[in-house]
Amino acid sequence: MSERPAYLLEYLLRIADTSLVLAQRLGEWIGHAPAIEEDLGFANTALDLLGQARLLLAYAAEVEGRGRSADDLAFLREESAYRNATLAELPNGDFGDTIVRQFLIDAYQLALYERLTDSSDLRLAEIAAKAVNETRYHVRYSSGWVVRLGDGTDESHDRVQASLERFWPYVQELFEADDIDRAALADGTAPPAQDLCDAWSRRVDAVLAEATLLRPAASPFRWYGKHGRHSEHLGHLLANLQYLQRTHPGATW
Amino acid sequence: MSQARDWPLYEVFIRARGGLDHKHVGSVHAADARMAIEHARDLYTRRQEGVSIWVARSTDILASDPAESAALFDPARDKIYRHPTFYDIPKEVETL
């Protein structure tokens, strides 16, 4: 595409930043997971997400056309310039919280990447084709744990149900189309938000049923990280993520 | 790490390429078989080491008794005629 549409930068940043921020959150578990096997499981998923973010940010940087690199976008943007879904930045909590947050986002990313492989934006379609296999495994991994905890002991069931209630209000943001989403839909870059919501719901409902968990009721609560309005938690996360480049500008390996 | 100690141990076998045997590569702790496969995938196939994974509960594996080694294995020592060393192996056969 020679003419890059105006909405594209914003649209790419939303997908890229959600992966980047979630990768950073998962990375916080390294050395702290309940077993070394889980430590590596989270690290693998985090690296997949980081890889997706790199490809998407590199594309976003080209679209922006101001000579910035993927690293510049990751390390030198302020909090309000981040476009990730709020759900991705919420703190890890306990292992069950992290699993539930991960599962909700994995299922969303799978629905998204499955459809983006047919995007009219060929570069985006290629990135999605790589990401979709990774994400299929992420869903397998996190849904396995949701079932294990939900259908486990009374305590694990109650705690993971509570996690679900806590994160559920933040899901709505993922499926509420705004002008950016509508513009991306209009030229065939993005799928309809409703389709994503339907595919996501089918997958999530099936896993919740197997896990003997109840789907929480819809909530009027709204928060729009994708508009750059973030919870109090993102600033602290970025302080960690960006510390090195902020302290030693231009430092390289 | 108390949870990991409570989880049973699984032995992991990886097939490196189509046509090769599954080889024992190590073990993982896991709460169930599905988790064992996932842990094995995450620990032992990070660098494209495999195309297939087997896992088996370590307690399900029966081993020969080292004290019986002499009785079990020594009788084969002087029977070199059992080695197929008198055949020429075609160059085209790579993984025999």
Structural class assignment of chain B? alpha+beta
Extended strand count of chain A: 0
> Greatest contact pair?
A-B, 13 and 17 residues
Largest sheet geometry of chain A: none
Estimated share of beta-strand residues of chain B: 15-25%
User: Helical amount among residues of chain B, as a percent range?
Assistant: 10-25%
Distance between the termini of chain B: 43 Å
Number of strands of chain B: 3
CATH homologous superfamily designation of the domain at 2-61 in chain B: Phenylacetic acid degradation B
Rg of chain A, Å, rounded = 18 Å
On the 0-100 scale, what is the average pLDDT of chain A?
Answer: 96
Kindly estimate the percentage of residues of chain A that lie in beta strands according to DSSP: under 5%
Summarize the structure.
The complex is a heterodimer of chains A (253) and B (96). Chain A is mostly helical. Chain A is built from eleven helices and no strands.
Describe the structure.
The complex is a heterodimer of chains A (253) and B (96). Chain A has 253 residues and is an all-alpha fold. Chain A is built from eleven helices and no strands. In chain A, 67% of the residues lie in helices and 0% in strands. The model of chain A has no long low-confidence stretch (mean pLDDT 96). With 96 residues, chain B is an alpha+beta fold. Chain B has a domain of 60 residues: Phenylacetic acid degradation B (Ubiquitin-like (UB roll)). The interface between A and B is medium-sized, with 13 and 17 residues.
